[in-house]
Specification:
Blueprint: E1 3-4, H1 7-14, H2 24-37, E2 45-46, H3 50-57, H4 61-73, E3 77-80, E4 84-87, E5 111-112, H5 124-134, H6 150-162, E6 172-175, H7 178-189, E7 195-200, H8 204-210, E8 216-223, E9 226-227, H9 229-239, E10 243-246, H10 260-272, E11 276-280, E12 305-309, E13 321-324, H11 330-338, H12 346-357, H13 359-384, E14 398-402, H14 408-417, E15 420-421, E16 423-424, E17 437-441, H15 446-460
Parallel strand pairs: 1-2, 5-15, 7-8, 7-10, 10-11, 11-12
Antiparallel strand pairs: 3-4, 6-13, 8-9, 12-13, 14-17, 16-17
Length: 477
């Protein structure tokens, strides 16, 4: 049975129709197509009748009739006997999943809680369409922009200035994702055998990128209650590292936020030891409770290299990140970057310009969606797994759950058998352990999150001794 959407809701989503640049029916059809493609009107949804939508939009019946016909012609809708016009996507779900990264992705019954990355928010498809329209003038050039398009560097610099960190476009380098940025930093600022302090637990792919030149990773503890800065300062003094990698904003996987006072204390310890901070701000825009965020770490430490990412705040498919660096460091970073790649994709950079320019509207809708999904997940955990403990994250994409017994790997193995893919704590451990923990993202739809927790509760009820730990999955976010 198809779900339905009211004419009033469609009118709200479509917004005002002007008919200035193209016929009204095409404007309506394009608006509906974008809404369907972005998932704001899900596939298999019965659209309002032509009469109902005509009234809601205040347009002619012919406009709606021709718009629906256009949708059907472009395979974003189909006519069903007894159901009217029903939305669809031109591609089957199987054709847009990656079996190498996620072998279970073609099984519709499997819920993926391994990847903490959301689907695209509203605005991404429109940004790509605008980018395609702007692409032709660039086609006469070679297309290589090692530091990134000037337009994009300008709007990214503005985002830092907006947060109280004056930044020039010359301090920005656009990269092919945040991990590519981390690899550039490692190439330019470390040598084989150098030590790099990293948080423990930590996002594993980032440490692999930083350690690709045979750097030695030195773990610094991040407890469930926060950073142990005294211990970290002692580690920094003893290890004499070249770099320190940290995630002060919705730390991955714990979801913690470092206060301004803690940032100042940490920055002072790194400065005394002449250590360059490498700060990952991928989750920084995802404050889900409307709270003000602390100042950027770089306001306390001008030597900071800041890593930004389009993946979490916009969409992972953009595959774009950036570095904000002290101006004197840029030549060395550019030279290192040229040994890895020659620049980021041009079309995606043009699309990201539009998303950054409209960031507040995009973020607001995305935060509202993610906030609802977070609340559903945490409420389900409270009801169905009351013996698990966690701090309620005020943002980010995942919750770090502490289990009563150290059998996270066994839990993950049994959960997979029941149709839920999750990541055990050991995936995020620098030197092993963390069997008391599991990370659960809220990036799936609410109904999937409810069902996932039900299956996790079933898996938890099975004694750990009866289950063998499975091998770890690729973790990309």
């Amino acid at each position: 049975m198809s779900r339905t959407i009211s004419a009033a809701r469609v009118a709200t989503l479509v917004g005002n129709l002007t008919g200035v640049e193209r016929p009204l029916y095409l404007e309506l059809a394009e608006g509906l197509r974008l809404l369907i493609g972005e998932g704001r009107i899900p596939a298999a949804t019965r659209l309002p009748s032509e009469r109902e939508l005509t009234t809601a939009l205040g347009v002619s019946r012919t406009t709606v009739t021709r718009a629906y016909a256009e949708l059907r012609d472009r395979e974003y809708a189909e006519s069903r006997r007894g159901s009217g016009t029903v939305t669809r996507l031109p591609l089957r779900a199987q054709s847009v999943t990656d079996r190498i990264f996620a072998p279970w992705s073609q099984d519709p019954d499997v819920i993926d809680l391994n990847c903490a990355a959301p689907s695209a928010p509203a605005g991404v498809a429109a940004a790509y369409e605008a980018a395609v329209a702007e692409l032709p003038p660039y086609l006469s050039s070679h297309g290589y922009y090692p530091a990134g398009l000037t337009r994009l560097r300008e709007v990214l610099a503005e985002t830092y200035a907006e947060r109280g960190l004056p930044t020039t476009p010359e301090q920005i380098m656009v990269t092919s994702g945040a991990l590519a940025g981390a690899a550039v930093v490692a190439q330019a600022r470390s040598a084989p055998g150098d030590r790099v302090v990293v948080e423990d637990p930590v996002y594993p792919n980032a440490t692999q990128a930083l350690g690709h030149r045979s750097a030695r990773l030195v773990p610094a503890p991040v407890d469930p209650d926060g950073w142990d800065l005294a211990a970290t300062a002692a580690i920094v003094r003893q290890a004499a590292p070249r770099l320190a990698y940290l995630i002060p904003d919705f730390q991955n996987p714990t979801g913690l936020v470092m206060s301004d006072a803690q940032r100042a204390e940490y920055a002072a310890a790194l400065k005394r030891a002449r250590v360059i901070p490498v700060v990952d701000e991928a989750h920084q825009p995802l404050a889900l409770d409307g709270q003000a965020m602390p100042s950027p770490f770089a306001t306390h430490s001008p030597e900071t290299i800041t890593i930004g990412s389009a993946s979490k705040q916009f969409w992972g498919g953009l595959r774009l990140g950036w570095l904000r660096v002290p101006a004197p460091m840029m030549p060395a970073l550019l030279q290192a970057r040229m040994s890895l790649d020659l620049g980021a994709p041009l079309l995606e950079q043009l699309a990201l310009v539009h998303l950054v320019e409209n960031r507040h509207a995009v973020w607001a809708a995305n935060r509202e969606r993610l906030g609802r999904q977070r609340d559903v997940l945490l409420d389900a955990l409270d009801r169905q797994l009351p013996d698990w403990s966690f701090h309620r994250p005020s943002g980010g994409l995942a919750v770090w759950c502490r289990l009563p017994q150290p059998r996270a790997s066994a839990l993950v193995a049994e959960a997979e058998r029941l149709g839920v893919i999750a990541a055990a704590g050991r995936v995020f451990a620098v030197e092993g352990g963390l069997e008391h923990f599991v990370r659960l993202p809220w990036t799936r739809p609410a109904e999937e999150l409810e069902l996932a927790v039900t299956r996790l509760a079933q898996a938890w009820a099975i004694p750990g001794t009866a289950v063998r730990a499975s091998s770890d999955r690729l973790t990309v976010a």
